[in-house]
Design a protein that fits this description.
about 400 residues, 14 strands
Length: about 400
């Protein structure tokens, strides 16, 4: 059986010693390596399989020009673009089974650009000095594993040698892991879920799976919504159960879990069936209590956990959310159903719970009714969103539209 091949991408001029050590550790643990040089400061410390000049050419530039310009920012941008092209080509040709890189700000930008060019499921490991901060721009909507380097990538010492040996073990383990049995014969359904809509989505998923579909559940935390819609645009998804549209509340009000202004548009543009609801539109997400902006200090909050603080949306915000959702769904090209759970839109928006606010919910539902176009079917139920009857109905509505 042929050994798995790990692509090692990095600047072999400035960090050649460190990459040589990483290469040695990966090979010692049973995998082969293919090294891609993206350095532009000088000659590589050792000979790679893919030279930096080839990476620059893949981006429509040439290495000599980049060196002569002495513009680090432009060089990084070019090498990131070229690295993505090269990595994608190597994977398509079946020459690599996974990829690893390491670096600081520049190295992380180039390494993760290459990783984002690879399909979900291909092992990707970035050892970075930036991991303790917000790495969403580097990860995007791909399954990139970010590993803290602890110390800078600057020499091999007693700590860095252990970290890099661990990283080698991690990527070798990833590429060596057996691939699960293929379920390609089952059409894919995408569903959105939050902790406060879990009972609904779990029950609906059971119904859909019993009908022969495979259900991918996305946590509606900004990245989740973007990842789902990326798969929709890629043509992987047959239908969508978008019951948790809470990311739109964060986008409107300024919470930390926005999926961007285009959320709830990809499915409509693709023309595939969708069943949508107002799950968790009663809340905006912030971090720990002290991270809540001063402008919101007099609002109603619920401490979900020590690191997550939820803020109740107001009547005015709910009315605007209804108009936003209604407007987006009205432009949908495919079969679209909007379900209204009149009993509450989350686990904490029901009688006796802290976010129960009939006036705010009514403003949301009224705006939806007033804004939705004739292309959208409205189904209203007296139950809250997590009621068994609501979940089963949502699944049945989607199944009916998938059947044509």
């Amino acid at each position: 059986m042929a050994r798995k091949v790990v692509a090692i991408l990095g600047t072999l001029d400035s960090k050649g010693v460190e990459f040589a050590f990483l290469k040695k550790q990966i090979e010692a643990q049973g995998a082969a390596t293919l090294v891609i040089d993206v350095g532009v400061l000088g000659p590589p410390h050792f000979t790679p399989e893919i030279r930096a000049a080839e990476v620059a050419e893949a981006a429509g530039s040439d290495l000599a020009t980049l060196v002569a310009e002495r513009d680090r920012g432009r060089a990084l941008a070019v090498m990131a673009e070229g690295a993505a092209v090269v990595a994608g080509r190597l994977h398509e040709e079946g020459r690599i089974d996974g990829i690893i890189s390491m670096g600081g700000g520049g190295g992380t930008a180039v390494g993760t650009a290459a990783m984002r060019a690879l399909p979900v499921g291909v092992p990707k490991l970035m050892v970075s000095t930036l991991v303790s901060g917000d790495v969403s721009a580097y990860v995007g909507v791909k399954d990139i594993t970010m590993m803290p380097s602890i110390v800078d990538i600057a020499g091999i010492n007693r700590l860095s040698s252990r970290i890099l040996t661990n990283a080698a073990g991690a990527i070798v383990g990833m590429v060596s892991a057996p691939v699960p049995a293929d379920t390609a014969d089952r059409p894919l359904i995408a569903a959105t879920m939050f902790g406060v809509t879990t009972p609904c989505v779990t029950r609906a998923r059971e119904v859909l799976e019993a009908a022969g579909y495979e259900v991918l559940v996305f946590h509606a935390t900004g990245t989740g919504g973007r990842s789902m819609e990326e798969l929709v645009r890629g043509g992987y998804i047959a239908g969508v159960l978008d019951l948790t549209t809470t990311e739109l509340a964060d986008e409107l009000v300024g919470g930390v879990l926005s999926a961007g202004p285009d959320r709830l548009e990809a499915v409509g543009e693709a023309g595939i069936p969708q069943v949508v609801s107002a799950g968790a539109l009663d809340m905006v997400n912030f971090g720990a209590p002290e991270a809540v902006p001063e402008a919101f200090r007099d609002r109603l909050f619920y401490r979900h956990n020590p690191q997550v603080t939820l803020m109740r949306t107001t009547v005015e915000e709910n009315a605007e959310l209804g108009r936003i959702v209604g407007g987006k769904l009205s432009r949908a090209k495919g079969p679209t159903v909007l379900m209204i759970p009149k009993g509450g839109v989350s686990l904490i928006d029901v009688p006796g719970q802290p976010f129960h606010d009939p006036k705010a919910d009514a403003a949301l539902f009224d705006a939806l009714r007033a804004t939705l176009g004739a292309n959208v079917e409205i189904v209203e139920m007296d139950e809250d969103i997590n009621a068994d009857a609501f979940a089963v109905k949502a699944a049945e509505l989607l199944l009916a539209r998938l059947a044509g």
